[in-house]
Amino acid sequence: MWVIGTCVLALAIAWLGHWVYRWRNPKCNGVLPPGSLGLPLIGETLQLMVPGDSLDLVPFLKDRIQRYGTTFRTSVAGRAIIVSADPKFCHFVLQQHGKLFESWALDTFAKLFAQEGKASLNVTNVHKYIRGTVLKHFGMEALKERLLPLMEEVSQATITSWLGKESIDVKYATGTMAIEFSAKLLFSHDPTQSSKKLGDLYSSFIQGLLSIPLNIPGTIYHKCLKDRRKALSIIRRTVKDRLSSHGRLHDDFLCHVMQDMSKEEFLTEDFLVQLIFGLLFVTFDSVSTTLTLALMFLEENPRALQEITDEHESIIKQREISKSPITWKEYKSMPFTLQVIHESLRLGNISPGLFRRTKTDVEWNGYTIPAHWGVLIATSALHLNPETYKDHLTFNPWRWKEYDSDVMLKNFMPFGSGMKQCAGAEYTRALLSMFLHILVTKYRWTNVKKGNIRRNPILSLGDGLHIKIMERQK
């Protein structure tokens, strides 16, 4: 028996060794970019999660760019991917979308956003429909015709509610504002009708995005899934009510999409729920993190605060009626505000990057990226590249006067790039601008408490940024 046992053990060791070898040396019809796939199954996920304690790149990216160059291979959450911080290659990937590359989500993201299996196959097919519908409800024309004054109103109401309080957690409070405002536009959500706040659920959800996908009680990922289900149930309840209401109309995004269900096969109940969930997610984190950083930077930079205040006061002074609602022309006359927003987005790097997948073998700079491999455009590395941005860790909104459109196209991608730019980009910029407009013209704030910056790779401020709001003395 011991002979048989020894043979079985030897075979198992040989098989394991072969498996590890194949993992570390995947098939490729050429030369792979340099790098390492790490340990089988978990890859280099643990190294990626090692946090940094500044606005700079996480140690994972800094170390590998120094070791392998701006394009390298790795494995995250069980999937082999190519990571690139090369502006030319990143631009090439985006330009070749639909030809050599396609939309893709890392497996952890796919599970959290229900994009596995059949649903993932539809991402490219439905993109045109989703983009068109989102632009119709949240794009430039919608902003011009009706959304700007509503954004001004919700910003005013939010900041007014902060008066008299000793401390406000900016990220939580602005995230709640953004998600409740967007949820009302998307599916006429009334936060008073739910025991759980969507803002609370999304805050928890975001923490699990890049965690190891172990659905075990006590893990971040388990809580993330649990709160995701709660958020989905709030949305699903509304969708079900609408489907059973026999065509009763509502003036919102959901009503418009449901009217197309007879024409588009992919518009199922599940799809509608996941679509609204995803749109709320994008709004929540982009608005809350950017405003948190903007307020922190402005409070620390009196010159920038004075310039943005002067810009908005000038807009009010030029009105015939000072208290009239903001207009599209006024919104488009806020160049310094846009520079502050751009600089906050650049330093914040809300998203870890843009995910794509190769449709076929792709040749680049002497290397071959095999078909069906993931590609991560490391936007954080582009945004913090000292060769592009002098004093790259310094808040300097004036730097944006120097850059032409070509530099921005290839080196600044907070909302994607070109035709693949997020359809809600202008909506987000407008909401950020309206909030800052109300804040700097009517109020002042002081920092009460500021947490330490951590990036793993999503940026956080530890205990957050807490401020005290006061009405401005005229």
From TrEMBL:
Keyword Mitochondrion: no
GO cellular component: membrane
Record: residues binding heme: 422
InterPro entries, sorted: Cyt_P450, Cyt_P450_CS, Cyt_P450_E_grp-IV, Cyt_P450_sf
GO biological process, one term: brassinosteroid homeostasis
Main location: membrane
MF GO annotations: heme binding; iron ion binding; monooxygenase activity; oxidoreductase activity, acting on paired donors, with incorporation or reduction of molecular oxygen
Keyword annotations of the record: Heme, Iron, Membrane, Metal-binding, Monooxygenase, Oxidoreductase, Transmembrane, Transmembrane helix
Taxonomic superkingdom: Eukaryota
Cofactor: heme
Membrane association type: Single-pass membrane protein
Location relative to the cell: Membrane
SUPFAM superfamilies: Cytochrome P450
Short name of any one Pfam family annotated for the protein: p450
Family to which this protein belongs: Belongs to the cytochrome P450 family.
PANTHER family: CYTOCHROME P450 26, CYTOCHROME P450 708A2
Name this protein carries in UniProt: Cytochrome P450
